[in-house]
Amino acid sequence: MRSRRMARRAGDDPRLELSPRAARLGGWLIALLLVVGVAVAVRILGGNADGTPVGAGASASAPAGDAAEITFGTELDPASGEVAEAARTERFGPGETFAYSVSPGDGPVPDAAYVEVRRTGGEAVQEPTHAPLSDPSVIAFVLPADRLFAAFGPGEYSMLIRLALDEEPIARGEFELAGVATSPSP
C-alpha cells in the first residue's frame, strides 16, 4: 500500500485510476468514436473527385456526360432495329441470344463503331474493336451469348461504344453473363 499524505502540493493531484474492466470499456468506446469520426469526415469531406459523394450510385462504368445508355436484350425489333421492349434484359445465360442497341438520337449513324468490353472492376477483356454496322438507322448488334461466354466467361461487364478510337464513348452500359449454376455433388 502506498502512503497517503494529508497535505498535497498544487499540481500533485492523484491520477485517475480505472479498473481493468473500465479501462477496456473506455478503449472500445474511444475506438468506436474514432471509427465514426473517420466515417463522418469521409462522408463530408470525401468524394469521387468529381463533386459527387461516395456511394451516390455513380460508378466508373455509369453513363456520364453525353454518353447514351446501351440497351441490352435477347432480340431486336424488326421495325425499329433496336432491342425489342419485351426482350430487354441485362442478364444472359448460355444458349441465349445477346443483343444490344443504342438510339442514335438526332445525329447521323456512322458506318462503324468501336466496341470495348471491360470487367466491372476495370480489366479490359475486349479492346476497342472495329464493328461495321448493318442498319444505317441504329447502332445495334446481335450474336449468340455462347460466343461471349467462350471469350469472357461468366461475370459482370461494362460495354463502351466509340465512333473513333481517340474519342470519348458515345454510349455505355452494363450486362451480366450468368454461368450455369452447379450443385454440390451428393
Account of the 3D structure:
With 186 residues, this protein is α+β, with helices and mostly antiparallel strands. Helices cover 18% and strands 27% of the residues. The chain contains two helices and nine strands, in the order αβββββββαββ. The chain has helices at 20-45, 145-152, and strands at residues 68-69, 71-73, 91-92, 97-102, 112-119, 124-132, 139-144, 155-162, 171-177. The strands form two sheets. Strands 1, 3, 5, 6, 8 and 9 form a six-stranded mixed β-sheet that branches. It has a three-stranded antiparallel β-sheet with strand order 2-4-7. A hairpin with a 4-residue loop joins β5 and β6. It starts with 19 loop residues before the first helix and ends in a 9-residue tail after the last strand. The relative contact order is 0.16.
